[in-house]
Amino acid sequence: MDNTITLSFVDKKNILSPGELEDRCRQAAPVLARAVAGDPRYQDFTGWRTVDESASPERVAFLQEQAARVRADADVFVTIGIGGSNQSSRAAIKALRPKDGPVMLWAGNTISAREMADTLETLDGYRSVYIDCIAKNFETLEPGIAFRVLRQYLEKRYGEAEAAKRIFATGTPGSTLHQLCKDHGYTFLTFPERVGGRFSVISDVGLFPMAVAGIDIGEITAGMRQMRDRLFAEGAEENIALRYAVLRKLLLEKGYALEMLSFFEPRLDFFAKWWVQTFAESEGKEDTALYPIVSSNSEDLHAVGQYVQQGRPVIIETFLTVRERDASVRIPPEPKKDYFDYLTGKDFWDINEAARKGTFAAHSQRGIPCLEFSIPAIDARTLGQLYYYFIFSCYLSCELLGVNPFDQPGVEAYKHQMFQLLGKY
User: Fold this and answer.
1) In which residue ranges of the chain is CATH 3.40.50.10490 found?
2) 302 classed as catalytic
């Protein structure tokens, strides 16, 4: 199987002039060169860039050993985290759907009383519960209060000594979370200091929950390295990460406001949520950037398809398509008249492909700028490639926009108001 990820662009309205993309890619070559070499301006935030700094083979082996200990006993495993601490591993687990191992649950990504109450009730139905609290500096409210509730739940249920064996925490060495682990005997994993939350899939943060779920994180990191090597080797004009970043910048300059990630495999729903956060939180500064949205099809075609086809022409559409046929369900004959005889004998896979191709044709013919990422399969190695690809592309895109890829000052506005209401200060 050809495992190459490809990028293509269809521009029926001739929004870009001939050679415009290639010219801008050549102009952006210094941006690519700095990213490949390691820009000293961002040396405190690019621990993910080489892959090996935060996810070396030795570290992967250690995480697999820790995960094996959990898998040998756990009936259910709760990942506590929000943002990148939640989305990265959840995206892979939901996409790959490993069949064996503990039930995977998530907490600390909401402050809904109903959700927490339901989680506690669910845990009561399992014999053996393990948790992992992921928080870089242990200052974010959602995972902080969820961790307090859930570790007290474990202590009440199993006693403090047994509970300590079931509690993992992933944070920065020297943080309050690290101290809690040392004081109470919890297993501490590392949230690398040089890696921010939305880039943390290339670290213990994303890899450990994946390993607990039963995903081969060796294949995930192999895919990351494969894409790293490709992007570091490709020149400016053919580099698919730079071409993507440049295309997005050009279309933004020409008045487009939103980028919609469209796909026809619902397994990618949570990968899309990770993609949204990666770009929205990295780029959305200084009154610029495309607003990232998602269309999970064919369901969402029946919600937003009308707008995309005939609404305001402000959307660019990025299709994520899968080449490998990995399941087969054929439409059986039916003696009762139901008006679907024209589909008898056809496979769901082929019907889905017809919907995808028809959507792409209709939207591109309307004049919507359509990009297509074609991926070989939904498997661990391909997901590793996609994680690294979009992180690196986002980094380049921020550079082209002139914004810092690694901060999020706007997040503090709502936090300030919330903490005032809660009496923190």
Assistant:
1) 6-37+220-401, 52-215
2) yes
